[in-house]
Fold each of these.
Amino acid sequence: MSHHGYILRVRAVGDTRELLAPSVGIFTPSVAQGEIVSAGQSIGAIEVLGVRRALVVPDGVAGRVAQRIGGTRTRVPVQYGDALIAVSTASVTDTSTPTAARATEAGTSLSFVAPMSGRFYGRPSPSEPAFVSVGDRVTHGQTVGLLEVMKTFNRLVYQGDELPTHATVERILPKDGDDVVRGDPILLLDSAES
Amino acid sequence: MLGCAPVKRFRRLFIANRGEVAARIAKTCDILSITPVFGVSEADRAAPYLRGRESVVLGPSRSSESYLAADRIVQAAVQTQCTAMHPGWGFLAENPLFASLCEAHGVTFIGPPPAVMQELGRKTPAKAAMAAAGLKLIPGSDGVLRDVAQAGEVAAATGFPVLLKAESGGGGRGMRVAREAKSLKEAYASAQAESQAAFGDGRLYLEKLIEGGRHIEIQLLADKYGNVVHLGERDCSVQRKHQKLIEESPALVLTDAERAHTLAAAVRATQAIGYVGAGTMEFLLDQGGELRFMEMNARLQVEHPVTEMRTGIDLVEAQIRVAAGERLWLSQDDVEFRGHAVECRINAEDPTNGFAPSPGVIEKWEAGSDDKSVRVDTHVESGYEVPPHYDSLVCKVIAWGEDRDAACDRLAEALRTMRCDGISTTIPMHLAVLSSKEFRENRYDTRAVPGWES
């Protein structure tokens, strides 16, 4: 059966735009947390007694999906007015920030430091797993966190001449939401090849 | 009352309604250890009767996208694991498509089978079935009218004035009075146009207009196995524009012979049409003292507490048990009728200003009476906002007494102690009616509210 989609209603909460369920039903999302969505795009469908209708992002909304109802579930029972996704309108830069690293006094240990001051996030959204955990092996080009600077989320990418191509995470210093200043160590690393 | 034997089939029951009836259904669910889940609109999501309850927001305040959205309601019932659906009254309560949709999705509809409901919704087949069971009808056309010429022939035979009514009608719409032959053509055209617009069916039938009658109805209860009992009659003649204001039981205007004859015929007719659940047959008591069948309502009535107060039977419990497949636990001889019960519907309307709607915030609410013989059914409390989107029923006050006077006195006393500040209500009108000579002496009819000039 072919049905017109719903243009979703929006509720503004600070810089976040919540897209609201137009009906009771089963929400089947087609976008994941962290993805960028924009006007006219479908974020999934709502199913009422087996009839599916597309859910369309309205004009004027664009940003990163900061939160999705039901976490990673693929069929989520919702009621009218539930926030299906929260879109963070703080823009996301696609280019990574210049990274920096320096050897610590401990000698054998390396640290990955904040390239600028901002607020650190270790995961794409509160309900998602962290980019990296202690014991993980990181490789040049890998995203290890987000830094929110002036309402802009910057990906922290592990790279740089002073850092080895591969390293193991020994410690993550800031917690989610902690403010860091430029040069603060974020990851303590062990460069030893295992 | 049946006591608290558990209902075998239902653990979770969906309430597809709002306000007073939603709260009423939940009360019986509590007694039966069934979890009620309320389907609500955006406007009602914070209503006090939902506090501590499970609810699902169906859609916006507009009824067409919430309380009348059959697909959303059934979806909500399925996704909240409900296996029974109580439609209350109004909204989708008498919609056979909704009942079928529930059954198709594994949710037991609490009401008669959809086919029976469909038959009752169309007026002329229902009348034929009732006549076959021995009920008297209002003289008129035999089925739907072909055209205005046939209407003229039938009207000439029954005599004017006549009433043209919609085959698929209800709620007083699609009805026109013709007082003489020359006004018939215009009445026919306008009734047809209104019926077509309101019900998608322009077919009409014709009845002799009975003026100055009384509105009497009979409460029936049937199980799925052909067992039927009546729970007595109610007199609902205090009306304004076809809206009932006061209901009572028994109807003292009936002769014993007429009452007994009609009750027995109503039970036979209920059996004959295969009715299941609680239902009400409405009659007009004509000036000759005869009850003439008008229609059968396939649902719980607003005024059901009048019957509950007299018989001690919880009608919502009975509906749920019957829907669960239980047999009627009582025979006609087991039904006891005690004393007299009277109910006033308190609406958020200003009776001194043409009954203008009066939505708004109830600043101070006190149900008042703690008299055991007085029952107050309501969903409101202090601070509740009567929304402008729905009907105006705020509460019902029902009083029981050894006789009619005792019940009326108790009711008036309860209304005097009730507080509902912040909005206008019909309480002053009810007090005037209850103390009026016409009402107390039972000399009035449906044309005017006794004791109240409006």
Amino acid sequence: MNKLVEHLEEVTVRFAGDSGDGMQLVGTQFSDTSGFAGNEVNTFPDYPSEIRAPEGTLYGVSAFQVHFGSKNIHTTGDFVDVLVAMNAASLKVNIANVREQGIIIVNTEGFDDRSLKLAGYVRNPLTDDSLSKYQIFGIDMSKELKKAFIEVDVPSKLIQRTLNIFALGVTYWLFNRPMEPTVNWINKKFKGKEDVILANVHALQGGWNFAEKNPDFRKQYIIDKSDMLPGKYRSITGNQAVALGLVVAATKAHLPLFLGSYPITPATDILHAISGYKKYGVKHLQAEDEIAGITSAIGAAFGGSLAVTTTSGPGLSLKTEAIGLAIMTELPLIIVDVQRAGPSTGLPTKTEQSDLMQAMYGRHGEAPLPVLAAASSSDCFDMTLEAARIALKYMTPVMLLTDGYIGQASEPWRIPEIDKLPEIAPQFAQDASTFKPYLRNPETLARQWAIPGMQGMEHRIGGLEKEDGSGVVSTDPLNHQKMVELRQKKVDNIANDIPELEVVGELEGDLLLLSWGSTYGAAKIAVEKMQAQGHKISHAHLRYLNPFPKNLGEVLHRFDRIVIPELNLGQLKNLIQAKYLKPVIGIHKVQGKPFKSVELEEKLTVLLSLENLKNWEANKSRQDIPVDL
Amino acid sequence: MKTIIDQIIEKPHTGDIHTTSKDFKPDVDVRWCAGCGAISVLSPAQRLMPELGIPKEKIVFISGIGCSGRFPYYIDTYGFHGIHGRALPIASGLKIARPDLSVWVVTGDGDNMSIGGNHFIHACRRNVDMNVLMFNNEVYSLTKGQYSPTSHRGQITKSSPLGALDDPFNPVALALGASATFVARGHDKDRAQLQQLLLKAHQHKGFSFVEIYTNCRIFNDGAFDLYTNAESREDHTVWLEHEKPLVFGKNKDKGIIMDGFTPRIVDLTDGGHSINDVLIHNEKDSTLAFILANMTYSEILPRPMGILQNLDSRTSYDDRVVEQIQQEVETKGVGNLEQLLLGGSYWEI
């Protein structure tokens, strides 16, 4: 059978089914295989907070999106090109985001009367013409799977469990993906269970063969390899990258690693990973609560460990008082906040960037600490190393913000050579004869770290204000002012030790899009597309939020208009306006989902429109804060 | 896997480690009120330290908030004055990270039973090797006199002018219920005895809990007089000693016998019972420990003092952490960081 071939630059595939259908698994396999095939990849798991919601329901739909291509893959894909829907509910939930003429592969057995009713369909969408603007491929997957196994001796119960792998095989044919990575994975995962291996491998091949032989599948799509730097790559989520970053940071600092944590979505994966690193000498405590998580880490920091606590919004709220203690005792500590949609329990599995103000100011007293934000899944590794470097060099707790999106989304990561990563030097006290707990390094203002076991340096620290230098408890008014100012100055000084803000595009002009954290990908793509269309627009991205890069003010004032997109109601916007007295136009999204680049393009197009520009020019002298979009 | 910390741990102490109690007195004024029960704990602690044979840089005192929280400032070892209720997790983190240290926690009835209550029960069950001294004065003192979780019902305080409506925790019973392995009770009027209790707590490998009746002269003066004053304590307390009969009274003329599962007082002089009938204490018997602990608020029975339970059957959590790491290294080898970064599958470009 002659099949057509079409080359594409990028594609977004979304696998959707019931929570128990194994969609996260096949999505991960598709993503890893695409990385293996040399594509850039960005993925997004989208699952409900219920573990196994009742079968066939709308709220039980679990999905996994893979965006892959030959270049510039920095988001999880704005629109879905190929939807795999295992039942009626997953079609209903996901159809709105499928591109016109997009491909929908459905498992028709998931469209019986009961499933249609549960999904709220009055008529069967597969037969009522309502899907005419898409390319529909209806497959009775169970039936086809059974056919594929006619000559293979595998228990039927096992066969039925490989439905998702069959569907994966169909998509592998569609994009001419290699089978090898998934076959290897199956062999490793089910080692010793020969019949399970056989069932899965045969189902994968069965899916491929089905599409190959089926005359409805007329065209295969080829996505060329991307032009990536040579090296070893793997697929990595932000949470995995944080866990690896912590182990590497401890190694580079020659310190033991201690994690005190309490399970919380979507940060728990970090705890899972670290708890499996025993052979690397890592210690962890799954504490009785969030407060014990951070305070045990503070205890470990007092004892000389690279100490860490990991959490999400509600947990960060509980850790607040203890963060103040770490600031007061000036101990190194990394606090990782994988932000989720709040307030309160909010949308536990959904992403948001709404903890920025809490990270900056959520403590009583004047309590500054450095705040960093990772830009992408793989950047979580680099920023974790940065957090460790700053914490140990400046003797301070450091807040690292990631979020549910980059925490769980994966992308290819160029694996670094450990030897080539810079060493991290803890600030241990050296001389017992001159030791005082609050003597400071004149350059960094860091106090010395003397840990139990160091003879002649016995001292007491704690939450009470201490006298500068000696560390004796002090209520002296002028000493308190001095110490408050010193702690602030220590954090402010870090601005001299971090990279300056880089502007992509023209260095001055009308419009600067300023992004932070996980909005990086969507912002970058949106700006690049608009630049390619000839628009005058520049982009800068913040990974350091406290202190800001020291050239930030100067950069802001080189542009007429500053636009900040964020997944909150304007938290960075308010910080920037307050500090630099520069009006900012905010783009806000609080839907539990990351920005699509197309959403930003639309807003920027409005801003760049002639009418808007005229309006702006006419009112330029007024000091009004511009209206948000 | 050797770290800088290993070098510090392994570095031998220079000079003589046999120090005197003076070496544990830092150059600061003790700011507790005159006659405060806490002072009566400080001096036995300072006297005990040189006897432990541990260099003082290996000893750490950790506290929370309250009058007891100032303790670390008054003993010249490493010290950490934490936040309210959190001394136990701070100490747990330190001991898990640094099993080489002798870790002591000083806390109070408010700090440990109220705001830190959750940490307390979990610390008990987890059995991290540390010694917890809980100063119980049955009142909040540093906030100037409110009722605490160990105040008795009807107690008049600034926040209960008509009498507290709460019933108190029985700290030793709570500790036993939460699976603490070493549970004891002492008081501030017999420093030698207290020093002995602290030594036993130190010698016990695992979580050691010592409730210490400490008189607050300002807000709850005399709360424990019946059980601590020399004139009355012999008749109102029974000192528990391992494998010794439960005999009490000024003339050692009363004993405790078991009537079914109920302890009862008998007169050893009326010919009805002899010393041979009296209950023998066994600090390894956790069923007995519960029975003894429940004598605490009895209006008839003497209050049990001394070591209620001292079990050595459970390994400490910090040891288990080390063992798990060792086992993993033995079976799988020391972790190869490069391999870890490569993960399950990688590809080359």
